[in-house]
DNA sequence: ACCTGAACACCGTTCAAGT
DNA sequence: ACCTGAACACCGTTCAAGT
C-alpha cells in the first residue's frame, strides 16, 4: 500500500522498451528452459504491478512475440546485394544461429508457447525457402534441415559426453557444420 | 475432507505405472508446449493428493526422466544383427523420430526442464556416435545434425506457410529427408 | 490512458501428522 | 510405507476501482 492507487503523477510507469529490455535480461539470466521469464517476476523487477504490463503487451505470448521480433530483427537486414544464393543462405543462417545462441532461453520459451510464433521468424523461413528453390529440387526438405540444425546447434541441450551443462558450439563450429550441410545440398553425384 | 487422513485400508493408492501412464495421457492430450502435464493436474486425474506422487517419483524432472525412459525404451532394442552401419543408423533414427513424433509434448517438456535429460537418450546418442565414427571423419558433427533433424521434424512447431497447427511430416517424409542426409554424409566428391 | 489491489484458478515442493 | 491437509512461494489473467 506504499504506492498510491491511481495513475502516478509523473512518468513513473513503464515503457514498452523497458519491458522488452528487462524481459530479455531475465531470460538471459536463467538456465531453466525458458522458465526464467514470468509476467510477475518481470513486473517485480520493473517495480510495478503485474497488471500494468498488460497495457503495453497483449499477454505473455505477445511479450515473447515482441521479444523475438527485436532479437531476430537484424537477420534479414542489409544483406549485401548481388550475393550468390549459396552465399546469401549461408549469411542468413549464420546470423540466425548467432541470434538463437545469444538468447537461447527465448527460443526455448517460444518452443513452450506455440502462440508466440510469428512475425520476423516467418519472414526468415520464407526468404530461405525462396533462395533454396533455385538451389535444390527439395527446398522445403533442406529449409527444415537447415533451420532445425541452427536451432539444435544454438540451444543448450545436454548431449555431449562431457559436462552436463556443456556450452553450445561456438560460431566457428557452427560454420563448419553449415558448410558441411550446404556442400551436401549442392552439387553431388547420384 | 472426504477421504480419511492416514493410509487407506486397501490399495486405493497409486502405482508408479499408473502415474507414468496417466502422465503420458495428460501430455498427449495437450497442445501447449509441454505445459499440459503438472504434478497437481496429474494427482487430480489419479484421484489423489499431489504430495502422494512424491512417494513414487523424485520430483517433476524425475517424472519426465521416467517417462522418457519408457517412451524411448525400444529405440535400441532388438536391432537386427549383422546390419551395415549405414542401415543401423537409419533404423535407430527412424525409431527415435517415431517416438518423438508419438509424444512430441514429452520432448517439449524435457526441453523446458534441463534436469530431465538423462537415461536412455544418452545411450542412443552414444550408440549413434560409435556407428558414425566408422562412416565419416566428422561423427559428432553428423550425430548432432541427425538428432537435431529428428527432433525438429517430429515436433509441432508452426513453420509451414499453411495452417498454423500443421502436423509434422509423417514417417514417409522423414525417411525421405533422412536418406537425403545419409547419402550426403556418405561417399561424396571433394 | 495508465496503474492499482483483490480475486480466481492455477503451479512445485516441504513438512508434520496420521495409520 | 504411504497418504493426508496445511502451508509457502510462486504462476497468468480478469475486473472494478482509482486518477
Automatic annotation (TrEMBL), chains A, B:
Superkingdom in the source lineage: Bacteria
PROSITE patterns: HTH_TETR_2
Gene3D superfamilies in the record: Tetracycline Repressor, domain 2
Presence of the UniProt keyword Cell inner membrane in the record: no
Keyword Nucleus found: no
Location of the DNA-binding region in this protein: 38-57
Keywords annotated in UniProt: DNA-binding
One Gene Ontology term of the molecular function aspect: DNA binding
Signal peptide feature range: none
Residue stretches making up the HTH tetR-type domain: 13-75
Name of the molecule in the record: TetR family transcriptional regulator
Organism of origin: Pandoraea aquatica
Amino acid at each position: 500500500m506504499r504506492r498510491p492507487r491511481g495513475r502516478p503523477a509523473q512518468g513513473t510507469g513503464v515503457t514498452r522498451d523497458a519491458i522488452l529490455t528487462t524481459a530479455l535480461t531475465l531470460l538471459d539470466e536463467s538456465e531453466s528452459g525458458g522458465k526464467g521469464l514470468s509476467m510477475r517476476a518481470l513486473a517485480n523487477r520493473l517495480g510495478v504491478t503485474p497488471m500494468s504490463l498488460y497495457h503495453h503487451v497483449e499477454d505473455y505470448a505477445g511479450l515473447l512475440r515482441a521479444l523475438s521480433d527485436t532479437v531476430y530483427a537484424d537477420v534479414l537486414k542489409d544483406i549485401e546485394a548481388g550475393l550468390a544464393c549459396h552465399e546469401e543462405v549461408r549469411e542468413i543462417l549464420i546470423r540466425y544461429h548467432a541470434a538463437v545462441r545469444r538468447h537461447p532461453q527465448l527460443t526455448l520459451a517460444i518452443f513452450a508457447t506455440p502462440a508466440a510464433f510469428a512475425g520476423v521468424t516467418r519472414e526468415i523461413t520464407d526468404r530461405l525457402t525462396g533462395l533454396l528453390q533455385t538451389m535444390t529440387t527439395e527446398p522445403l526438405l533442406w529449409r527444415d534441415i537447415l533451420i532445425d540444425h541452427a536451432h539444435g546447434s544454438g540451444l543448450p541441450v545436454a548431449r555431449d559426453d562431457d559436462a552436463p551443462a556443456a556450452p553450445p558450439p561456438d560460431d566457428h563450429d557452427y560454420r563448419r557444420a553449415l558448410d558441411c550441410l550446404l556442400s551436401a545440398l549442392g552439387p553431388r553425384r547420384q
